[in-house]
Amino acid sequence: MPGRFHPAIRLLHWTMALLVLAMLFIGIAMVSTAGPAYASLLALHRPIGIAILLLAVLRLAIRFRTGAPPLPADLPRAQQRAAHASHILLYLAMIGMPLIGWAMLSAGGYPVRLSAAWVLPPILPQDLLAYGVLRQAHTLVAFAFFALILGHLSIALVHGFVRRDGVLETMLFGKTVTDEAPPMDEAGPPSAEVVEEGTEEPAP
Fold first, then answer.
1. Which terminal residue of the chain has fewer beta carbons within 10 Å of its beta carbon, N or C?
2. How far apart are CA 97 and CA 141, in angstroms?
3. Which residues pair with 112 in a beta bridge?
4. What is the pLDDT of residues 123-170, one digit of tens each?
5. Is there a domain that residue 141 lies in?
6. Which residues of the chain have pLDDT under 70?
7. What sign does the dihedral 44-47-50-55 (CA atoms) show?
8. At 185, which CATH number?
9. Does residue 12 lie in a domain region?
10. What angle do the packed helices 128-158 and 7-31 form, to 10 degrees?
């Protein structure tokens, strides 16, 4: 089995997976909700988005420092390139979406309120045209991000349950069957002839 990702990477991966899943449900609910319920969902949407941004930047920094386990040697070159490209796109989405949302709210003149006392500064001047463009971009990136997540999950399941090549285990905690299996002696098990020879009674 290939080596695993650094424990901090694995912890951030599953923490962010929960946050992204929560954001997807919140985003779907916001589309079909209005009034006080929408305001409550928006109050959750903003801080979770900023949390994903900060965690993604931290995760990327650790990834550059610690590296990543190699992909299986028998994986076709095209699939290896697709895997690297999909990871780059996932990082771009996790960092880009919150930044687009932040810029969109700034252009619209809306405060990016994380709590009652914590409001982020605007990163763009107020501009209604820019607000409309960024709003469209935010929606398009959200759909693309959702498609990337579905593809990422599907490929992870293929590696874990079809290929069984250890790729899925690189992001898991705890011991796996591969970890617990004792290493095989290169010389192989002793032959029956050797066992019998070792148990023969000495000649008188």
1. C
2. 7
3. 120
4. 999 999 999 999 999 999 999 999 999 999 999 999 999 999 999 999
5. yes
6. 1-2, 175-204
7. negative
8. 1.20.950.20
9. yes
10. 130
Structure tokens that stand for 150 in this block: 């579905």
What is the separation of C-alpha 151 from the centre of its chain, rounded to a whole number of angstroms?
12
| Alpha-carbon gap, residue 16 to 59, rounded angstroms | 10
Give domain status of residue 28, yes or no: yes
Q: Which domain covers residue 195, as residue numbers?
A: 7-70+79-199
**Where are the extended beta strands (E) located within 11-151?**
112-113, 119-120
In terms of phi and psi (left: phi > 0; alpha: psi -120 to 50; beta: otherwise), the region of 176 is beta
Tokens of 116: 């009652």
Indicate the DSSP class of residue 174: S
- The pLDDT score that the predictor gives to residue 178 is 45
**How crowded is residue 38: how many other Cβ atoms within 10 Å of its Cβ?**
15
Instruction: Indicate the residue type of 24.
Output: L
Closest by CA to 82, choosing from 154, 161, 4, is 154
Q: Taking a C-beta distance cutoff of 8 angstroms, is the pair 62, 93 a contact?
A: no
What pLDDT score does 176 carry? 55
* 1 found inside a domain: no
**Domains of the chain: total:** 1
Helix (H, G, I), strand (E, B) or coil at 156: helix
- The contacts of residue 126 (CB under 8 Å, 6+ apart) are 106, 107, 108, 109
